[in-house]
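Q: For a teaching session next week I want to show students how multiple molecules come together into a single three-dimensional assembly. I've collected the sequence lines for a complex. Could you give me the predicted structure tokens for the whole thing so I can convert them for display?
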Amino acid sequence: MERAKKRAKPADFIILAVTLILALFFVFPIFFALISAFKSNGDILKAPAALPTSFYTKNFRDLFAQSDFGTAILHSILLTVISEVLIVCVVPMAAYAIERRPGKLSAFVYTFFLAGMMIPFHLYMFPLFKEMKIFHIFGTMTGPIVCYVSGSVAFGTLLYSSFLKGIPMEIEEAAEIDGCNMFRTFWDVTFPLLKPCTGSMIILNGLGIWNDYLMPYLALPGDKAKTITVEIAGFVGQYSARWDIVFAGTIISIVPALIIFFSFQKYFVKGITAGAAKG
Amino acid sequence: MKRKRYDSMAIAFIAPAFILYTLFIIVPTLSSFYYSFTSWDGISPNIHMIGLANYREIFTSARFGNALKNTIILTVFISVLENAFALALALLVDHIRWGKNVFRACFYIPVLISGIVSGFIWKIMYNYNFGAINSILKSIGAGNLKQDWLGNTKYTLLMVGIVLIWKCAGYYMIIYLAALQSVPTELIEAAEIDGASPWQRFRKITMPLISGAFTINFTLSLIGGLKVFDQISVMTDGGPGFASETIVYLLYKVGFNEGRQGFGTAVGVVLLFIILILNAFQQKFLKSREVQM
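A: Of course. Below is the structure for the complete assembly, covering every listed component.
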């Protein structure tokens, strides 16, 4: 507050100038993708940095005409939404039991879950796909969903456990005295108080699933479009001469992420810092 | 209120997460140790044990040696610069007088986009004939610096690294920013009154107090560097030749393109041990330097 009252000093202008230059470097590639999506291929090649001269939407029409991009969008949405719903059903309950029923078993499960944060996906992907074939979920939407939920357990438990430590137990105890069982107590009393944590969890996981490439590329059925990200990666090889179409696809991938970010910015920041504080 | 005994309800709370996590993370992880001793091709039902042959091949093959070298170069390059940028951005955003939130959002935006999309955008910008970078160089009269940025094996890996620095610096910035904001202002003001210069204040007060954030960011960025995949896949496919083939990319290629998943999982096991060593290093060395408030 005090700094705001002072007059602007030369240092303030230097900081502003440096920050502005760096901000341009960080934003330019996104801006470049955005303008290119509304330009013809010829214009992208001739003047990469020029603004589009008209509201040119042929790229998007071509995108949907030449590929099954609608299916890809649907798949991306379904994978993200269904996984998120299941994650919220499964992970907070586990963290709650670990936190509120301390003991040897809880301590073991907590360590066991957190070990998962160190295991790289690439280590276990070959056996995982074999296992998915045994369960008959390879090549179905269920496969990636189940893996996303399993993959969220480690970080999710960490996030919820550290958040639960800050929630007083008195309210829960009162609810239990009034005759609520653990299930009712958790969902009716505690879960609403975990809203900021759930927000962070949904947003960070959702972004990861929305942007994921390898899992849907390898584990979804091969006969039709997979997800937005996979389609874009496919275009890069296939339509290497039609950058305009690929840029239209990238915009469809970026814009939802940006909208979610600007609507729920504080949850992003909270989730990242809470994860880092404990990890 | 007395502690409750572990009841069946608590077990029911944990069970779904426990079962899924065990079944789809732990079981495949443990079985990858088994497969790493086999010549499994990923398809055939017959799996032959070949003992340590995969590991012997890893430590003698020139291709793995090259992948290891590339991984180390890429990982060190991006970890150092990501942290340098992230800390600089956090300091700037923390001290700026106008537009704090706008700038923070600008630096964070690249974090939101997928690895594939970021790789594609930069691939186009690096393009020799039509890319934005060469045309900017030309327009400022530095046309002789024009390069085939991704095609020249001297630069390929660093060019991929730049994309990752651009994409991830904002993430680490958020962590540094939170740490900076937790430094008590009284300490800084007291030092100011005692006549400490801005550099001294940063070096003697701020730095020790944010070293926790430094530890976590450095570890996260090292592990992130080891796992880079999407950008390599869309920008270079490990090439030209093997110039940008990292351990993870080698693992993927031998597993899916060359039908040698036994060997691939052995590479994955080596990767896991590298990650475990880095984590142990973080626990032991970097943590001991931290100052607790």
